[in-house]
Write the structure tokens for this entry.
Amino acid sequence: MTQKINRRDFVVTGAAAGISLAIPAKSHAEAPAVITRSAAAPLVISSGNGNRVKNGGTQTAVEKAFSMVTSGADVLDAVVAGVNIVELDPLDNSVGYGGLPNADGVVQLDSCVMHGPKKRAGGVAAIEGVRTPASVAKEVANQTDHHLLVGKGAQEFARAMGFTIEADLNTEKSRQLWLEWKRRTDPLHYLDPKTRADALQRVRMDMVAEGLIDREHVYGTINCDAINSKGEICGVTTTSGLAWKIPGRVGDSPILGAGLYVDNDVGAAGSTGRGEANLYNLSSYVIVENMKKGMHPKDAMIDACKRIVANTIEKRLLNSRGLPNFDMSFYALDKQGRYAGVALYDAGSYAICNENGAQTFKMEPVFPGHSTD
Ligand code: GLY
């Protein structure tokens, strides 16, 4: 089922029929089209990198979070401990230590957390020198009256909370990749801003095509959400943001309602992909509100994708089909333990962990092919 769907067909057919247009995906394991689970069976869901690296230990992020959730740990503590594995692992260059740096070669990290039952939240943005921004975001939620600390203030807060501040979070690999980017883009720095933005995007995509960086790591991020047997729901999103971004650029990951939203009565949703598109649409909030109206997580996410399509009109952001030329992925679970991972295109994966262990599925794409097609 790989028929081409263009923007016009999608908008007209989707609006008229009022139904999901998701194309069933082949999965790493077989992704069920609709997943229904008994109420409050413990479950963890994350982006695909939550079931990839172990940082030298024995568990991936979803396995760690699930084992903690089922041992009675606080659900937020569990998902943060899970994503800490990815943040600390130098092999994942989308998150935390070794995350791809900004245009100046400095690793700046973003994260937010939400605690469903306590209705508390915290975030940090453009924080430097701390390998685990998700843990700092959790301290913002636990220790302060605020929801978001940025830059130097976030770093000073982390220092006061006892976090180690390091001069440089680059690994040899992330530094080499930045040097390669710098080498390719330096001659372009004096072009007019539009040409330069196009050129910078082209260089990123060339580096993906050449296999130097993973397509998912251009906006690499991990989102992880969980529900325990009491129906308590928490979530976390953490990232090094857009590779080689303008210093100070903050994406969707640390912004409540964009990179993450949790409503303990409804469910949780989070994102990876082009933060700017998500910031414009506050998709995680939209997804949770859709689920509140009774939508299955999958349909709730397809609707959020439709909004992104409808609000993406600038030519520079459209591909030859007139659709967004970037990737955007969402992950969600609801109070009944139903879950899904939906992406604009046929790219990326999501992971879950439940009583059957950890599994990775291909995302359910709204459109066939890739963002660049
Ligand atoms: N979604 C990660 C970012 O855009 O920063």
Q: What stands out?
A: Confidence is low (pLDDT under 50) at residues 1-5, 8-28.
